[in-house]
Recover the amino acids of this structure.
């Protein structure tokens, strides 16, 4: 066992150094920044588009005094329910023909309110009239009531804590942690597969198998890629924290989890390590068995899709802690890290996480053991001319006539 671990550390140091010191690692670290910048830009543009489209304009052709009352009523209501919830009002001279305004190509108004506050008339398409009728009726009633409108003050009774509010806040933290864990795992786990396939194609893996135990090769490569992933996460995390502090200040928006950030953050990294090694051990086993890159691509896609389904199942169980869906997600090894990190946000109990991490590591060892046995049986114990791929095809011997 000690010999296997020493060999695994040697393989891990070799792979880790080769990856970290390569020029492509810099591009790997910069890679997520481009989608992030695009996402921020698209989000800001989309928010502006949504802001503009969610505030349609209604033209108002009423006497000046009544128009001012209507604007005052809109300001009063907007302070209570938000400016975006009410349509914008565009004034027109009293007596303006509503149909002529709506027919004009330069008009921004989608409907026209005319007449007086006592006898208002709304002109527009049927869908637009139905959309604005309720809002405009509210504004007209507030404008007509004026100072006579009752304004009953609400007595405030402030409490220091609310169980329901804290529970909802922790659900947000749990879901955010799940999404981040899933994205990091799917982004980084594929590197194990590509590394294994590359060395198997170049016959390096068979040279290593002749020198050290196959278990050490699998474990070492997994450790190296996990270490590289932590380097990437550290760089991205520091960059994100610096950018957020620069533009938004030190106020962190996420609600505090039940066990506090001091325990939650290390648990997040532990669950990332188990999720990564679970998926990585599966990928490394596939990469060791596959004879061609096509076979790898054929099998990695269904596994990735299954992992997406598993993530959605774990996400479904977030607000059902203690119920059968959440317990099943916590027991199933590939969904267990996602379910347990959400549980960490909602419960301060430590012992379930100790059991879950031990359970997940047991499955990592089992998957690695199965992959090693298949590698020995299908690759190392077959002749070069009788090697078979994952689908039972005999590899073609490179023979020249």
């Amino acid at each position: 066992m000690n010999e296997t671990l020493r060999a695994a550390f040697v393989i891990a140091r070799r792979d880790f150094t080769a990856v970290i010191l390569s020029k492509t690692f810099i591009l790997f670290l910069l890679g997520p920044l481009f989608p992030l910048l695009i996402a921020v830009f698209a989000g800001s543009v989309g928010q502006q588009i949504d802001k503009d489209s969610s505030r349609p304009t209604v033209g108002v052709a009423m006497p000046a005094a009544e128009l001012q009352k209507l604007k005052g009523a809109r300001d009063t209501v907007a302070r209570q329910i938000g400016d975006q919830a009410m349509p914008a009002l565009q004034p027109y001279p009293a007596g303006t023909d509503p149909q002529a305004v709506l027919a004009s190509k330069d008009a921004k108004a989608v409907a026209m309110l005319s007449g007086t506050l006592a006898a208002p008339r709304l002109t527009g398409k049927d869908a637009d009239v139905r959309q604005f009728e309720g809002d405009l009726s509210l504004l007209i009633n507030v404008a007509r009531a004026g100072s006579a409108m009752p304004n009953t003050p609400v007595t405030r009774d402030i409490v220091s804590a609310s169980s329901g509010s804290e529970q909802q806040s922790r659900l947000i933290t749990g879901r955010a942690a799940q999404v981040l864990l899933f994205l990091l795992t799917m982004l980084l786990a594929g590197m194990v597969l590509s590394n294994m396939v590359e060395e198997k194609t170049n016959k390096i893996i068979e040279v290593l198998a002749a020198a050290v135990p196959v278990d050490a090769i699998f474990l070492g490569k997994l450790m190296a890629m996990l270490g590289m992933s932590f380097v990437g996460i550290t760089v991205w995390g520091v960059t994100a924290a610096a950018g957020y502090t620069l533009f938004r200040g030190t106020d962190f928006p996420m609600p505090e989890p039940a066990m506090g950030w001091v325990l939650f953050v290390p648990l997040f990294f532990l669950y990332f390590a188990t999720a990564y090694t679970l998926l990585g051990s599966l990928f490394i086993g596939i990469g060791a068995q596959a004879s061609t890159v096509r076979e790898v691509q054929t099998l990695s896609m269904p596994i990735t899709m299954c992992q997406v389904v598993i993530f959605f199942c774990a996400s479904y169980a977030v607000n059902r802690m203690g119920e059968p869906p959440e317990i099943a997600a916590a027991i199933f090894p590939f969904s267990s890290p996602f379910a347990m990190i959400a549980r960490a946000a909602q419960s301060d109990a430590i012992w379930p996480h100790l059991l879950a991490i031990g359970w997940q590591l047991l499955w990592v060892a089992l998957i690695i053991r199965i992959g090693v046995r298949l590698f020995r049986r299908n690759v190392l114990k077959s002749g070069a001319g009788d090697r078979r791929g994952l689908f039972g095809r005999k590899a073609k011997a490179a023979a020249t006539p």
Summary: The chain is about 70% helix and 5% strand.
